[in-house]
Amino acid sequence: MKRYAAALAAGMKTGKVRKDIVPQQVAALVIAAQMGIWGTGKSSRNPQLMTQAGEAVCGYLDSLRP
């Protein structure tokens, strides 16, 4: 989680990430989403569901751009 938070903080400094986020909170959310996607994919055996969930996380991360 520390690496994700550090990457987000670095992005904030360079203007690639919005300044109104809390890097530690976003990092925790991304990790929780990854774990949930993997668990859901494993239990459902539905690759389309995993793809949709992964795309949703990517969409969220894209929304963090200024």
Protein described:
The structure is a single chain. The protein is mainly alpha-helical and 66 residues long. It has one domain (2-62). The chain contains 3 helices and no strands. The chain has helices at residues 2-14, 23-44, 47-62.
Instruction: Determine the fraction of residues in helical runs and give it as a percent range.
Output: over 70%
Q: Give the mean pLDDT.
A: 95
Oligomerization status of the protein chains: single chain
What value does the Rg take, in angstroms?
Answer: 13 Å
The fraction of residues in strands falls at: under 5%
Whole-number tally of structural domains:
1
- Report the uncertain regions: none
Counting DSSP E segments of at least 2 residues, the number of strands comes to 0
* Alpha-beta classification: mainly alpha
Order of helices and strands: HHH
CA-based shape: elongated
Q: Could you describe the largest sheet, including whether it forms a barrel?
A: none
> How far apart are the termini?
22 Å
Total of helices: 3
Could you name the key traits of this structure?
66 residues, mainly alpha, elongated
Element layout with pairings:
Blueprint: H1 2-14, H2 23-44, H3 47-62
Helix pairs in contact: 1-2, 2-3
Short summary of the structure?
The protein has 66 residues and is an all-alpha fold. It is built from three helices and no strands.
